[in-house]
Amino acid sequence: MPIKIIHLSDIHIASPYFIPDMYDDVVREINDIEPDIVVITGDLTNEGRLSEYEEASRYIKKIKCKNMVILPGNHDTRNAGYLLFEEYFGERIKTLRYKNITVVGVDSSEPDIDDGHIGRDKYPYIIDSFNQNKDDFKIFALHHHVIPVPLCGRERNVPTDAGDLLDVLDRLKIDMILCGHRHVPWLWNLNDMIVLNAGTASTSRTKGKISQSYNYIEIDDFLKIYRISSNGEKYILLNRKIYKDEL
Ligand SMILES: [Fe+2]
Description:
Layout: E1 3-8, H1 20-33, E2 37-41, H2 50-60, E3 68-71, H3 74-77, H4 81-89, E4 93-98, E5 101-106, H5 123-131, E6 137-141, H6 162-171, E7 176-179, E8 186-190, E9 193-197, E10 213-219, E11 222-229, E12 234-241
Parallel strand pairs: 1-2, 2-3, 5-6, 6-7, 7-9
Antiparallel strand pairs: 1-10, 4-5, 8-9, 10-11, 11-12
Helix pairs in contact: 2-4
The protein binds fe (ii) ion.
């Protein structure tokens, strides 16, 4: 059986753009998949306020998975929401290990600005966490897109230290980066490091004709990445052999 990972992003619960029925459909699909790991790369709320966190907590509890990596986005950090995030969803920097998969998630948001930033002070944590199990399949997760994606007009909000961060991740031979923010689902392959952006899973804030979607990843001897859209379509984005003896 492959290890099954769901990657969701930008659900914006409690915003005027949130579509509850669509979210419930997504949760039903996810629970049918029975994922081993769920990663949510931020923007759970719209303004980071208490009532939104309460609602987001209720909605996210509908997802049945023991291994969740939930990160804040720029919207969640507004209005001192970063404090509420910790109360409702735990640390803003965290590591999860499941079998031979290591997921390191780091908060890339800053209070009341939309720009992304990881910062040099977080690099030792990232390096140490991945070096604990160097032969694992290594996943780094954050909210902001580390490389520009199409259909966004004028580029903005890429982490201010994206170049240095990518250098750190490249040296660690990270297998995959999971991110969101721009509501554009996309996949880049950078030095064999997959950079996978999730679209918005459950809001009307889409771009052009792109529909809402989330990512489904299977890992065994092969890495398979699917995009599952709200129109019911499932696209395979990648299917490639993993050259690691231990998996
Ligand atoms: Fe965002």
